[in-house]
Design goal:
Elements (H helix, E strand, L loop, with lengths): L1 E10 L8 H20 L3 E6 L5 E6 L2 E6 L5 E11 L2 H9 L3 H4 L4 E6 L16
Antiparallel strand pairs: 1-5, 1-6, 2-5, 3-4
Length: 127
Amino acid sequence: MKEYMLYVRNVGDGKAGMTPEQHLEFVKKCEDYIGILKKVNRLIAAQPIIREGKVISKQKGEWMESPINSEKEIQVGYYHIRAENIEDAITIAKGNPEFEYVTSASIEVRPVKTKEELTGYAYPKEG
């Protein structure tokens, strides 16, 4: 199995219009989705990401720091999964409850590089 990252994105606060009951329903469906992925040994990690923070960059030797603009498209969570190939990873991503509840939802599906081919260096997983 290969590793993939599923980056969950929304435009603005896609869940702002939900009632407390709808939000609870969404959270429970996410928990079920995570449970299924764990049961079939496809999940490595999954976490939501809080909509605040900073973007840092370096230009002409100077560090720049700016707040995250949560009104634009923003990453709201991630899933680190195992899949047979990119098509399998896409199928897993399509089952994410985000699509059922947030009309602006998108998921970026990307393979994880676990080893450098030129040097044989294996990137650390934990600790």
